[in-house]
UniProtKB/TrEMBL annotation:
<keyword id="KW-0963">Cytoplasm</keyword>
<keyword id="KW-0342">GTP-binding</keyword>
<dbReference type="InterPro" id="IPR027417">
    <property type="entry name" value="P-loop_NTPase"/>
</dbReference>
<dbReference type="InterPro" id="IPR032305">
    <property type="entry name" value="GTP-bd_M"/>
</dbReference>
<comment type="function">
    <text>GTPase that associates with the 50S ribosomal subunit and may have a role during protein synthesis or ribosome biogenesis.</text>
</comment>
<comment type="similarity">
    <text>Belongs to the TRAFAC class OBG-HflX-like GTPase superfamily. HflX GTPase family.</text>
</comment>
<feature type="domain" description="Hflx-type G">
    <location>
        <begin position="205"/>
        <end position="371"/>
    </location>
</feature>
<dbReference type="InterPro" id="IPR016496">
    <property type="entry name" value="GTPase_HflX"/>
</dbReference>
<dbReference type="Pfam" id="PF16360">
    <property type="entry name" value="GTP-bdg_M"/>
</dbReference>
<dbReference type="InterPro" id="IPR006073">
    <property type="entry name" value="GTP-bd"/>
</dbReference>
<dbReference type="Pfam" id="PF01926">
    <property type="entry name" value="MMR_HSR1"/>
</dbReference>
<dbReference type="InterPro" id="IPR025121">
    <property type="entry name" value="GTPase_HflX_N"/>
</dbReference>
<comment type="subunit">
    <text>Monomer. Associates with the 50S ribosomal subunit.</text>
</comment>
<keyword id="KW-0460">Magnesium</keyword>
<protein>
    <recommendedName>
        <fullName>GTPase HflX</fullName>
    </recommendedName>
</protein>
<keyword id="KW-0547">Nucleotide-binding</keyword>
<dbReference type="InterPro" id="IPR030394">
    <property type="entry name" value="G_HFLX_dom"/>
</dbReference>
Length: 455
């Protein structure tokens, strides 16, 4: 059995009996939600047998919960013959090790649990690579500071109590494996970027579904595409983004992307690991932010999704909120508009289809203003930006200025436009100029040789 067979065993097994541990902490110290924890646990396929909920001002540095509670926990594990203890919190490698010794049972923290669910749900090649990378990185923190995971999993005669040599070998194997996965992921990402550039050029808008896990994204995605995406009443039913071509009345063809469900306090390393999955979100023309309107935690879920969007740099993308599951509220579908009169929130039901007509109309209206058509004055140093604008949209006119810079008239997707300017460290006000043929503003010298319609 090599190291990577053993990492497989970090996963929870379906049907395993679990004792759940939740510590009620002050907000500032990372308060977690108990209902969401139950959802997470059910999604992982283990069977919760009992739970230990306790309150503390701060976690114990060595055991997370107090030593009295640890004894109680050990007793619960014994009496319920539990296979695993699941914590609704991130544990340090040391805490995990101490707890395992004290309760004589496998302990998995929140990050490990989320990774386990991701591992079960990953279906595409890229998704699986991403999960494996995140798991190995999680394991490597345990390997460097602790050693329990591998030591414990070795088991078997002749494999118990590895010496330094084995530890070094495993570290090296782990490093090599991480590097090889990173290289393969880079390759997959490049292929994906090529697909994206082709889409950009074809001007097909990309609409990305995002939302708190279990909000109904896959149900909506299926209903809109009549496709067959995995739907389940479990968290993270969707891990890999699924792209489908759809026809939106009033818009024409568009690409719809389903993405992984967001949760509160998604460990930072996981956000990094799933960045490629979420890249579709960063580059979308419009985000459909789906929310379960019947959920008690509705507003907190919306905030949690917004936080992740900010973290992945997608907070600049226009958003249309979809308040799903209106059938549960016994309310008719409707549209709310923002202070500019634009559709802002559509209340509908993905299962009954009520409100889809409102959604289509709202999407069409929101996408209508997605292009910018304007004159820009670029300094000589902005050659790269000029090239990127050519790639991202259409350059309708281009003139050299006496200072070696450029005047361009661009027709480009607003989202891409704003992103490119940000990347070039410029803002719109610095480069925007009036149409030179009508403006009284400084007229640049015009070099007909260099004027062309860009292809
Ligand atoms: N009553 C009702 N239930 C819905 C509606 N839309 C989705 N559901 C249910 O909500 C649950 C979650 O739906 P999914 O589509 O899997 O949710 P998701 O947001 O894709 O979930 P993740 O992949 O975990 O992020 C399923 O049991 C759906 O049947 C709706 O409009 N009304």
């Amino acid at each position: 059995m090599d190291l990577f067979d053993r990492t497989e065993q970090v996963r929870t097994g379906a049907g395993e009996k679990a004792v759940l541990v939740h510590l009620d902490l002050p907000d500032a110290l990372g308060r977690e939600d108990l209902d969401e924890f139950h959802h997470l646990v059910t999604s992982s396929g283990v069977e919760p047998v009992t739970e230990l909920v306790s309150k503390r001002d701060r976690p114990d540095p060595a055991l997370f919960i107090g030593s009295g509670k640890v004894e109680e926990l050990a007793e619960l594990v014994r009496s319920h013959e539990a296979d695993v203890v699941l914590f609704n919190h991130a544990l340090s490698p040391g805490q995990e090790r101490n707890l395992e010794r004290a309760v004589k049972c496998r302990v998995l923290d929140r990050t490990g649990l989320i990774l386990d669910i991701f591992a079960q749900r990953a279906r595409t090649h890229e998704g699986r690579l991403q999960v494996e990378l995140a798991q190995l990185q999680h394991l490597s923190t345990r390997l460097v500071r602790g050693w329990t995971h591998l030591e414990r999993q070795k088991g078997g005669i002749g494999l118990r109590g590895p010496g330094e040599t084995q530890l070094e070998t495993d570290r090296r194997l782990l490093r090599d494996r991480i590097r090889s996965i990173q290289a393969r992921l880079d390759k997959v990402r490049k292929q994906r970027a090529q697909g994206r550039r082709a889409r950009d050029r074809s001007e097909t808008p990309l609409i990305s579904l995002v939302g708190y896990t279990n909000a109904g994204k896959s149900t909506l995605f299926n209903a809109l595409t009549t496709g067959d995406v995995y739907v389940a009443d479990q968290l993270f039913a969707t891990l890999d983004p699924t792209l489908r071509k759809v026809r939106v009345p009033g818009v024409g063809p568009a690409i719809l992307a389903d993405t992984v469900g967001f949760i509160r306090h998604l460990p930072h390393r996981l956000v990094q690991a799933f960045r490629a999955t979420l890249e579709e979100t960063v580059n979308a023309s419009l985000l459909l932010h789906v929310t379960d309107s019947s959920a008690e935690e509705r507003d907190a879920n919306v905030d949690a999704v917004n936080e992740v969007l900010e973290e992945i740099g997608a907070n600049q993308v226009p958003v249309l909120h979809v308040y799903n599951k209106v059938d549960r509220l016994d309310q008719p579908p409707r549209v709310e508009r923002d202070e500019h009169g634009l559709p802002w929130r559509v209340w509908l039901s993905a299962t009954t289809g009520e409100g889809f007509d409102l959604l289509y109309a709202a999407i069409a209206e929101r996408l209508a203003d997605r292009w910018v058509d304007r004159w820009l004055r670029l300094p000589p140093s902005a050659g790269k930006l000029r090239a990127r604008l050519h790639e991202a949209g259409e350059v309708l006119d281009e003139r050299a200025t006496t200072d070696g810079g450029m005047l361009l008239r661009v027709h480009v997707n607003r989202v891409h436009f704003e992103r490119l300017l940000r990347e070039a460290d410029l803002d719109e006000e610095q480069v925007k100029v009036p149409d030179p043929s009508v403006a009284d503003a400084e007229t640049p010298s015009y070099n007909p040789e260099r004027s062309h319609r860009a292809g």
